[in-house]
Hints:
mainly alpha; disordered N terminus; 24 helices
Amino acid sequence: MSTVHIHPSRKDDHPSTEYLGLTNEFQMEHAKKVEEVRSVLKEAGEDTLKALLMIDAVQRLGIDYHFHGEIEAVLERLYTKFNMSDCHNDLYELALGFRLLRQEGYYVSADVFNNLKDKEGKVQGKISQDIEGLMGLYEASQLSIKGEDILEEMGDFSSQLLNAWNTNDDQSQARIVRNTLGHPHHKSLASFMAKRFLSDFRGTERWINVFKELAKMDFNLVKSIHQKEIRQVFKWWKDLGLARELKFARNQPLKWYMWPLAVLPHPSLSEQRVDLTKPISLVYIIDDIFDVHGTLDELTLFTEAVNRWEYEAVEPLPDYMKTCFNALNGITNEISSKIYKDYGWNPIDSLRKSWAILCNAFLVEAKWFSVGHVPKTDEYLKNGIISSGVHVVLGHMFFLLGHGITKRNVDIVDDFPGIISSAATILRLWDDLGSAKDENQEGHDGSYLDCYMKENPGTSIENARCHVMLSISETWKLLNQQCLPPNPFSSCFTKACLNVARMIPLMYSYDGNQCLPSLEEHMKSLV
């Protein structure tokens, strides 16, 4: 498994940030601004388009967590009348309303878009000049699920017209169009895109400036929380001592922390972000043991030890593996104790099982590599979505959030549900696209592309990559479906699974210098 790597010359041994103290005066002003925005949202009243524009703005600015009640009230009103054909006179309002409802877990039929066709079944020509409407239509198409041909058709239609319009002389509008095509909201991280939206967010209405003022204040507030968390993560990592003991392994606590920062953006989840960084770090360390250091005999013993989780099984291990297992055991016990104390459920069996399943998948890949075996694509992907480590991370996150911890839901999480396996599939396929070049790390990684090209002789690398991109697109449809009712999980957990999928392109789009420029840019802006 190739997970997140950082350029060797940029190892983040020490955090470069300082805690940003905020005065009481600032916090009082911030609270006042929150209430001002709340009043503006309530004033929108029955003006549906205005209310939807405001909801879209607060979500894109990353300040929506302040206004869940107000947002829900607007969407409930919209949902009750959305499927009535006579309430969609405006293309942009239709597309925006559909997207916002679907994003918040309301199922609305894609059939509403059939109204955009004429009697011959062709898309009405008049909408081809509505650039704002076309952008909204393209954004809405990103929430399609399997079988929604009309949404796929509308996505293709809008993207073709927007790509053609992209050369327009209006440079400001062209930039917004490019951004929509390259970073549609549903498949992007709002917290990482907020600054770009802020610069393009213009208008004459007073509420726009009020929203922007709160967004700027909120950015400083959230940044101070993140900086405090980074200090905690670095202290924990230093005290753990694995960087000293396992010098062959990656030493990138800041990069690992970026996952929880992206996946759990709500400021109140500070403790969960810090705790989630711990198992994430172990996924990377164990990955390095399997990929770049351990012999097959050692890896077999280590996998047996993790499956048995007994000290007798640890005794035969070399010292570096004992060190790793002791850290794994300590972190698992610590998190289990915390969850039991907070929520009355001891997850230790579930967490141990997830680590055993991960190591079993790592060992399968190590055995394939040792004999030069290139598996069939289905066999590779079935194992690869497990070796991605996503189930370990999301399993820990489910318990750390503490929402809906029942025997039924725990059994569902333990059995690798679709909402987790879809995110894992997207990670595995993105990882194997070929842009994720491990920096100076000659590991034993396989590749879906290699398997596909061997299985389909004569296929070019370009065609193989197109096949992978199509598979990612189809998996997104499955993930979209799994986020709609009936869904046994909380909204917070569901959105976190989506955020994993949204984070993946940032984590795996390496440039020619084996760096992650997009991620590094966001890291600088956020921390």
